[in-house]
């Protein structure tokens, strides 16, 4: 088995599903060859995802941020919003979807900040609300893990910061 960056019991962040935990590493037979795979449980979605080890980088899977890195996330959340309210909703949605798919915590923080502040000025489209909700969920659960706090408390703290 290859040298794995993620061991059993370690937390990981997937750009689409958010925070998960590697339950086990199993060998699976895929197209006539056996490969080691990470079996990841995502409690929020109550689902399991199996990713071949050689596909981990392409999947966008990454380690969660550290407690120290949360300071940078909160700096972004407190920063100045960078949205163009006059741009068509479809253009904004495409941009925000791209940033959420990157899975980077600072990009997630920018999306949360910008869409929350935009919502104070105008009604968000259905897609914008969906993106905001997803980015907020992923970010708050990851920050909660890093800080050893309750995800709901972190969610309220983030909402308080961006809605000031």
Model description:
- The protein has 164 residues and is α+β, with helices and mostly antiparallel strands.
- It folds into 2 domains: 49 residues, Thrombin, subunit H (Beta Barrel), CATH 2.40.10.170; 93 residues, Up-down Bundle (Methane Monooxygenase Hydroxylase, Chain G, domain 1), CATH 1.20.58.1290.
- The chain is built from 6 helices and 4 strands, in the order E-E-E-E-H-H-H-H-H-H.
- The chain has a 4-stranded antiparallel β-sheet with strand order 1-2-3-4.
- Strand 1 and strand 2 form a beta hairpin.
- The radius of gyration is 17 Å and the shape is globular.
Rounded radius of gyration (Å): 17 Å
Major beta sheet summary: 4 strands, antiparallel
How many DSSP-defined strands?
Answer: 4
- Fold-level CATH name of the largest domain: Methane Monooxygenase Hydroxylase, Chain G, domain 1
What sequence of helices (H) and strands (E) makes up the elements?
EEEEHHHHHH
Calculate the mean pLDDT score and round it: 92
What is the fourth-level CATH superfamily of the largest domain? CarD-like, C-terminal domain
Number of helices: 6
Question: What proportion of the residues form beta strands (DSSP E)?
Answer: 15-25%
Helix fraction, binned, reads 40-55%
- Overall shape: it is globular
Which keywords apply here?
alpha+beta, Thrombin, subunit H, Methane Monooxygenase Hydroxylase, Chain G, domain 1, 4-stranded antiparallel beta sheet, 6 helices, globular
């Amino acid at each position: 088995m290859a040298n794995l960056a993620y061991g059993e019991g370690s937390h990981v962040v997937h750009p689409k599903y958010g925070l998960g935990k590697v339950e086990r590493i199993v060998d699976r037979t895929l197209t006539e060859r056996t490969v080691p795979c990470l079996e990841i449980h995502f409690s929020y979605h109550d689902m399991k995802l199996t990713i071949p080890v050689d596909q981990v980088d392409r999947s966008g899977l990454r380690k969660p941020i550290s407690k120290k890195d949360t300071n940078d996330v909160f700096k972004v959340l407190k920063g100045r919003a960078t949205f163009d309210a006059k741009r068509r909703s479809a253009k904004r949605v495409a941009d925000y979807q791209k940033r959420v798919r990157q899975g980077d915590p600072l990009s997630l923080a920018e999306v949360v900040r910008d869409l929350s502040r935009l919502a104070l000025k105008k009604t968000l489209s259905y897609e914008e609300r969906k993106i905001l909700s997803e980015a907020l969920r992923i970010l708050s659960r990851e920050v909660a893990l890093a800080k050893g706090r309750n995800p709901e408390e972190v969610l309220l703290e983030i909402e308080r910061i961006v809605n000031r």
